[in-house]
Amino acid sequence: MQDLDPSTTGLIDPFGRAVTYLRVSVTDRCDLRCVYCMAEDMTFLPKKEILSLEELDRLCGAFIGLGTDKIRLTGGEPLVRKGMMTLVRSLGARIGPGGLRELTVTTNGTQLTKMAEDLYAAGVRRINVSMDTLDPAAFTALTRWGKIEQTLDGIFAAKAAGLAVKINAVALKGVNEHEFDRMVAWCGEHGFDLCLIETMPLGDIGGDRTDQYLPLSLVRSRLRQSWTLEDSDYATGGPARYVTVKETGGRIGFITPMTHNFCESCNRVRLTCTGTLFMCLGQDDAAEFRDLLRDPSVDDAGLAQAIRDAITRKPKGHDFVIDRRHKRPAVARHMSMTGG
Ligand code: SAM
Ligand code: SF4
Fold first, then answer.
1. Tens digit of pLDDT for each residue in 64-111?
2. Which of 36, 139, 143, 336 has most ligand 2 atoms within 8 Å of its beta carbon, as the pocket-test mutant?
3. Rounded CA gap, 88 and 93, in Å?
4. Which ligand ends up closest to the CA of 139?
5. What is the spatial distance between Cα 76 and Cα 300, in angstroms, rounded to a whole number?
6. What is the pLDDT of residues 103-156, one digit of tens each?
7. Hey, where are the domains in the chain?
8. How much of the chain is in helix, strand and coil states, percent to nearest 5?
């Protein structure tokens, strides 16, 4: 079998970090408009700018050939992309020794009643479902028009299909901060992990972010008043730091890009649906792959070399600041573009 030790064949960045985790935003479109993620009147990309599912599959295959062992499909809403299961099945077929260790999906859950069983059958075992609140009215307000029943039905369909579910919730000041105790209890009751995320200054959302930002250090100390949080060395290869809730046995992950810089252990890069590879979520430098994929003179070896070249440009880290004077996003592109 091919030796895929990243130290010999894989992707090592200039700071010695092995890049083994690829997040792929398969579409910039979404059936919801979460207020912290998108403006209400988003303009989406024309189809010709979007990589076909075959092009995405080929590029993912090139990463896997270079030692990538975890791929997360995200978006936009990945499960609204037409024909999406074709890509999931093709990547699922690459799970195994020398290939992927894990294929996962981040979704808003709206399509899961239809798709959860197919995802499991394709080899997906864990999914992240974003749900910031358990309150139906707050859910509709946050997503601008979503119905919580659809997401809840999706979550329970995923559980019934055998998928491990992690609930992602963005912590928003004055919006859902009073709900975290309830969410910890609810997740514990149903066997879901909970992951809390600090809002990041990505993209113009048609509003002011400084009002929304809630440091998770504060959330954590408030949770400690109701729950016994035990430090855990559980890790999923992502940026979350976990604690175990003694009372429920469930886990809570904290993703804290604003209060704690997690860059030193960064193992990931992000590919957009247009074939742009961002070596860092919080920096603008990127490598373009769409033209290479569409150039008949570029073979798989050429593609692999272009990936290696891109990784040599991976920066040391990001420096997000919610700029109180200018109230501008630190990075102009939206999370739905880069993939969360
Ligand atoms: N549509 C899918 C979903 O909502 O799970 C996948 C894409 S979404 C961009 C991925 C994750 O990014 C979600 O958990 C969402 O809450 C999070 N997200 C979006 N905008 C964000 C922001 N500005 N700051 C922090 N997290 C954000
Ligand atoms: Fe859509 Fe996900 Fe962004 Fe919400 S967070 S608007 S569900 S892409």
1. 999 999 999 999 999 999 999 999 999 999 999 999 999 999 999 999
2. 336
3. 9
4. 2
5. 28
6. 999 999 999 999 999 999 999 999 999 999 999 999 999 999 999 999 999 999
7. 6-167+266-338
8. 30, 20, 50
CB contact at 8 A, 199 and 213: yes
Q: Best of 23, 30, 197, 256 to mutate for ligand 1, by most ligand atoms within 8 A of CB?
A: 197
Using the mean position of ligand 2's atoms as its centre, give its distance from the Cα of residue 198 in Å: 15
Of the candidates 243, 231, 268, 276, which has an alpha carbon nearest to the alpha carbon of residue 102?
A: 268
Q: How far is ligand 1, taken at its centre, from the CA of residue 78, in Å? A: 12
- Residue nearest (by alpha carbon) to ligand 1 atom 25: 199
**What distance in angstroms lies between residue 279's CA and the mean position of ligand 1's atoms?**
18
User: If you measure from the C-alpha of residue 37 to the centroid of ligand 1, how many angstroms do you get, rounded to a whole number?
Assistant: 6
Secondary structure of residue 215 in the 3-state scheme: coil
pLDDT in tens, 295-304: 999 999 999 9
- Residue 311 in tokens: 């990784």
Q: What is the pLDDT of residues 214-255, one digit of tens each?
A: 989 999 999 999 999 999 988 877 778 899 999 999 999 998
d(CA 121, ligand 1 centre) in Å: 25
Instruction: Report the nearest atom of ligand 2 relative to the CA of 30.
Output: 1
Of 15 and 238, more confident:
15
CATH H-level superfamily of 6-167+266-338 = Aldolase class I (3.20.20.70)
CA dihedral in degrees (188, 102, 279, 54; nearest 10)? -120
Pair 227, 183: CB distance under 8 Å: no
pTM: 0.92
| 330 or 168, which is more confident | 168
Which residue do the tokens 């704690």 mark?
260
Task: Out of 40, 108, 148, 205, give the residue to mutate to test ligand 2, the one with the largest number of ligand atoms within 8 Å of its CB.
Answer: 108
